[in-house]
């Protein structure tokens, strides 16, 4: 039996809901073989649930990437949290050495407040060095406004404006995740391929248990591309997968609740 091989280049979420943990659970559920290149370790203060990010060295990341890209090979790969400019540089170098058939960039940005990136240098490096290499880039509303350098996004028209600007940076396809935060009666995501816009709508699910939803969505796109789906189909399948995972999200403590990655298999709703 052959199984598509995929790679996540992302951080470790110690609580298990996001990062490489979410990616690997998604890969398993979607029948692809997942591998990892760890960029950082995220831990939480048990009393306040504040986050601490400890980066890997760029040299260690490059060794991980060599192991997978040169030693095994992949059908597709994705990024998640890339916590330093040096790490972003390392990812860009390795992808230039061994170009990928499908590369999904989830431009995770740690922010302070609603409209300010904690490390602007990493946001600029993602924009300059990784977005132009992307088959698909999957920003949320905040990340899309940062990449496109627009005002905060509140409407579908705002999403379209940002998508055009991000596509002009070199990404082949832009998928902006509106989710439940957009001023819209549905949970809306937008696909733009440089020519046409497509809105993907699903029910708005009123829940706080959405930790890792963005990672799960981009990982599902990565898995579907590896199995041979075109981008449009991959995004549609990923949206269905993450919507079901959100619908069956659950709390793990008093602070946070993740999506349920096994929900599509367990409930088929």
UniProtKB/TrEMBL annotation:
Return the similarity comment.
Answer: Belongs to the ThiD family.
Keyword Metal-binding: yes or no? yes
Which keywords accompany this UniProt record? ATP-binding, Kinase, Magnesium, Metal-binding, Nucleotide-binding, Transferase
A GO MF term = kinase activity
InterPro entries, A to Z: HMP/HMP-P_kinase_dom, PM/HMP-P_kinase-1, Ribokinase-like
Q: Note whether Metal-binding occurs among the keywords.
A: yes
| Domain of life of the native organism | Bacteria
Protein name, UniProt field: pyridoxal kinase
Give the catalysed reaction(s), semicolon-separated.
pyridoxal + ATP = pyridoxal 5'-phosphate + ADP + H(+)
**Known EC number(s)?**
2.7.1.35
Q: Which organism is it from?
A: Saccharibacillus kuerlensis
Domain Pyridoxamine kinase/Phosphomethylpyrimidine kinase, first and last residues per copy:
13-259
């Amino acid at each position: 039996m052959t199984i598509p091989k995929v790679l996540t280049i992302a951080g470790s979420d110690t609580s298990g809901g996001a990062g490489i943990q979410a990616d690997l659970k998604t890969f398993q559920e979607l029948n692809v073989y997942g591998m990892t290149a760890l960029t950082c370790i995220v831990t939480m203060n048990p009393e306040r649930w504040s986050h601490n990010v400890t980066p890997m060295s760029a040299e260690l990341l490059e060794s991980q990437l060599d192991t997978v890209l040169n030693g095994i090979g992949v059908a597709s790969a994705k990024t998640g949290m890339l916590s330093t400019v040096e790490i972003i540089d390392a990812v860009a170098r390795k992808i230039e050495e061994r170009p990928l058939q499908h590369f999904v960039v989830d431009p995770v940005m740690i922010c302070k407040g609603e409209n300010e990136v904690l490390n602007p240098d990493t946001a600029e490096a993602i924009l300059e060095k990784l977005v132009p290499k992307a088959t698909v880039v999957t920003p949320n509303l905040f990340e899309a406004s940062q990449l496109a350098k627009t005002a905060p996004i509140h409407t579908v028209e705002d999403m379209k404006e940002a998508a055009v600007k991000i596509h002009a940076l070199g990404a082949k396809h832009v998928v902006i995740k509106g989710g439940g935060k957009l001023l819209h009666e549905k949970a809306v995501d937008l696909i733009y391929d440089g020519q046409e816009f497509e809105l993907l709508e699903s029910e708005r699910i009123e829940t706080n248990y959405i930790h890792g939803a963005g990672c799960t969505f981009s990982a599902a796109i990565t898995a579907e591309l590896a199995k041979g789906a075109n981008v449009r189909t991959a995004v549609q399948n990923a949206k269905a997968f993450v919507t079901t995972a959100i619908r069956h999200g659950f709390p793990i403590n008093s602070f946070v609740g993740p999506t349920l990655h096994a929900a599509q298999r367990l409930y088929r709703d």
